[in-house]
């Protein structure tokens, strides 16, 4: 059986690089992108490298495209066995918490949380028929002096909680889907203004982290993994620190 993956936001950046690396391993790629022009251009680039790829319109701001994609894939790609929720937006990464408006926060949550919720919900029945997996791209959600983008971080914290909740739900209800998150760390992409530095990874490095954790053969139900494959349990870490300070 050939592995088949749908990757949202895969026309550029780490989504495209993940598609390229999986495609080179023989995977069939369903490349999710909002823009037909950019999506088809990305597909042609993958095909030029020998990858089997097809563009699927997916816009996390437009629920109708998610439902249409699920309907099309069920009819034409019923063997889909992996979904990678890669698409996301950061919001203003330099704005302080008190400077955000509710509308600005909603814009980020609409994509990073609600859009991914709709993807998970729409594709669970297809994936369940194939013992499928859902990998969600995430970030660390404990603020520090160097990294604390308010909208981005809070939306991803909600996503991480949703991963844990869906993992528990799938297990309790014997649904044959595994869901987990991956935090590849800082990767130089358009999302962060192509930031470079000693702690930033290249696109091939970031893509390799995702591909390696997706294909490691281990069970990660409901977990959010760092780049080394270690599950991040912030609640447990917080409680441990609290006990040490008593």
UniProtKB/TrEMBL annotation:
Pfam families: adh_short
GO MF, one annotated term: 3-oxoacyl-[acyl-carrier-protein] reductase (NADPH) activity
Gene3D superfamilies: NAD(P)-binding Rossmann-like Domain
Enzyme nomenclature, EC number: 1.1.1.100
InterPro entries: NAD(P)-bd_dom_sf, SDR_fam
UniProt KW keywords: NADP, Oxidoreductase
Entry superkingdom: Bacteria
Family: Belongs to the short-chain dehydrogenases/reductases (SDR) family.
Name of the protein this chain belongs to: 3-oxoacyl-[acyl-carrier-protein] reductase FabG
Organism encoding this protein: Desulfosporosinus acididurans
Gene responsible for this protein: fabG_5
